What we know:
Blueprint: H1 21-28, E1 36-43, H2 49-52, E2 63-71
Antiparallel strand pairs: 1-2
Amino acid sequence: MWAKGKLWQHTVTLLAEPGSARAKAWSAGKPALPPGKYLLKVYVDADDRLAKDWTAILGEADYVGQVEIRGPWKEGYGQMTVADAGKVKR
Length: 90
């Protein structure tokens, strides 16, 4: 996080249902998401529940909003997909 630049960055974690077509494709090669539009849902853990229990699930009270992002999902620093926080709407 860089407050002066109002920048927060994070990684995208890829999950696939065991045995699904996506899981099979990922096991045969490098996991990747297809290019396209994705809905980014933003939750804020203001109570630090995840720091105490990383398996905790954030719910409606933690939900801030959502924004659509587009991704060719290139790898590496400087290849980021950007979501403007000002466009996050409930």
